[in-house]
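DM from R.C. (forwarded with permission)

"hey, sorry to bug you on a friday — could you get me a structure for this? deadline for the figure draft is monday and I only need the backbone to look sensible"
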Amino acid sequence: MSDPTRVRWLSIFLDVPAADLDREAAFWGTVTGSGTGEPVGDHDEFLPLAPPDGDPCVWLQRSDDDTLASHPDLYVEDVVAAAARALELGAEQLSQQAGLVVLRSPGGLPFCLVRWRGQHTRPGPVGAAGGVVDQLCLDIPPSRYDAEVRFWADLTGWPHHDDEPVDEFARLVRPSDVPHAFLLQRLDDEQPTVTAHVDLAAADREGETERHLAAGATLLARNPHWTVLQDPVGRTYCITARKPGDV
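My reply, with the result:
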């Protein structure tokens, strides 16, 4: 019998102020090769990016303030049971409605548990550089790092890889049919809560970077294994040297 709390799908939500929604949709639609689907929600506040193949797994969420943020939605068969497990592991519940529970991780990152309603297909890379939204990187203050890593590893049940414990990164290895992984980054400095940013993988990182710059991104930094960019509304994200399709 399958575990009804197992994560079957993971979507990344990009929270964006209403005034910036059109620019954000145009940029992320371009770099992901997606169109925009029909908005959903009580106030049409959720806008899916519809990829050329596969199912939507990146969404824009219109917010009522000026905060740019990112958060994950985890799709499970039994939302109530999954929420109860999250609470046992140290999460805080913020709200609940049919098929949806909004929570906050022990380190303060908002996330949602959503009812999984059937098969999804993971989108493939787009463009000549072969880029794809690959993972959500959790930016964790050092005082919260061990507890936050343990929480997400226990909640997802995904294997925890920390090949070099002295460095600042650990990874949760997703199932191959789930579109996004979790990268867990220990920050050098303290901050009030855990935050998150999007990482893309690309077969040709330099080519993918140039494609994003042409779409309106700004280059912030180049590192040996990743490039830091900012989108047209000020959201920071990275393009990594990971191979698209790796778990």
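R.C.: lifesaver. Helices lie at 21-31, 79-88, 145-156, 205-214.
me: no worries. The domain at 9-115 is CATH 3.10.180.10 (2,3-Dihydroxybiphenyl 1,2-Dioxygenase; domain 1).
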